[in-house]
């Protein structure tokens, strides 16, 4: 519903410079005007475009990685799941504080859902805009913890200690591992939801963001991919 090329421009620039990679930011459609799966379809389309090595991106090395923050984490993993049925390899997935379960049923929703910057009541409203008719079918399509997660690339799931979405990120890690995905969980003590865009006001948030970017660089370097 919120967030765009401007809101994460600084994050994208930090990734590009610190990880030495080409970054393509996706200005995907947003709810409520465009509920799910519109944003997922947009990301899938961009990945297919990148896979054809378009001239504006210069000389690319290896397959792309997908990186998503918050709702972007959910979109990234669902796009990767959709691409698992296409002959387009992905180098890695980096999911930062992903909104992994639209049922909002995990304990951290209650424990951290007030006073930490992301309110549980707001989350519930966001879900109704993204998935107006939440049922078993839409959960499988729009909620990562309920989706088919077979065939995903190496994945890093990042969670923040004081984030209402923390526990569903942990649950997503476990489910990915159960599906045979090479998945690692990176918990960040003291961090809140949205820490990645707080680097200009919090040195601790800046260090945490740099840690995530460093892990992204390691994942790509491990396969000689950029």
Explain the overall architecture:
The chain has 226 residues and is α/β, with parallel strands linked by helices. Helix content is 42%, strand content 12%. It has a four-stranded parallel beta sheet with strand order 1-2-3-4, with helices on both faces. β3, α7 and β4 form a beta-alpha-beta unit. α1 (9-19) crosses α8 and α2 packs across α3 (71-83). The mean pLDDT is 94.
Shape: globular
Fraction in beta strands = 5-15%
Low-confidence stretches: none
Number of helices: 8
Question: Which fold name fills CATH's third level, the topology?
Answer: Rossmann fold
Structural Rg: 16 Å
Tell me about the largest β-sheet. Answer: 4 strands, parallel
| Class from secondary-structure proportions | alpha/beta
Number of domains: 1
Mean pLDDT: 94
Second-tier CATH architecture: 3-Layer(aba) Sandwich
CATH 4th-level superfamily: Alpha/Beta hydrolase fold, catalytic domain
What's the β-strand tally?
4
The SSE string, one letter per element, is HHEHEHHHEHEH
Considering DSSP H and I runs of 4 or more, what fraction of the residues is helical?
40-55%
Question: What top-tier CATH class fits best?
Answer: Alpha Beta
Biggest β-sheet: strands ordered side by side in the sheet: 1-2-3-4
Distance linking N and C termini: 30 Å
């Amino acid at each position: 519903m919120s967030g765009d090329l401007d809101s994460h421009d600084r994050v994208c620039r930090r990734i590009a410079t610190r990880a030495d990679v080409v970054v393509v930011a996706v200005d995907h459609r947003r709810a409520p005007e465009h509920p799910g799966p519109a944003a997922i379809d947009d990301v899938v389309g961009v990945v297919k475009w990148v896979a054809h090595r378009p001239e504006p991106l210069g000389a690319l090395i290896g397959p792309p990685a997908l990186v998503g923050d918050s709702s972007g984490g959910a979109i990234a993993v669902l796009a990767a799941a959709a691409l698992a049925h296409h002959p387009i390899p992905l180098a890695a997935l980096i999911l930062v504080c992903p909104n992994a379960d639209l049922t909002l049923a995990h304990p951290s929703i209650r424990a951290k859902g007030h006073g930490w910057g992301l309110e549980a009541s707001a989350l519930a409203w966001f879900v109704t805009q993204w998935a107006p008719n939440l049922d078993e079918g839409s959960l499988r399509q729009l909620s990562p913890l309920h989706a088919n997660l077979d065939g995903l690339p190496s994945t890093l799931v990042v969670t923040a200690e004081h984030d209402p979405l923390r526990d569903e990120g942990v649950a997503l890690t476990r489910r990915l591992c159960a599906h045979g995905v090479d998945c690692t969980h990176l918990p960040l003590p003291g961090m809140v939801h949205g820490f990645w865009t707080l680097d200009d006001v919090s040195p601790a948030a800046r260090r945490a963001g740099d840690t995530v970017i460093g892990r992204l660089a390691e994942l790509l370097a491990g396969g000689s991919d950029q």
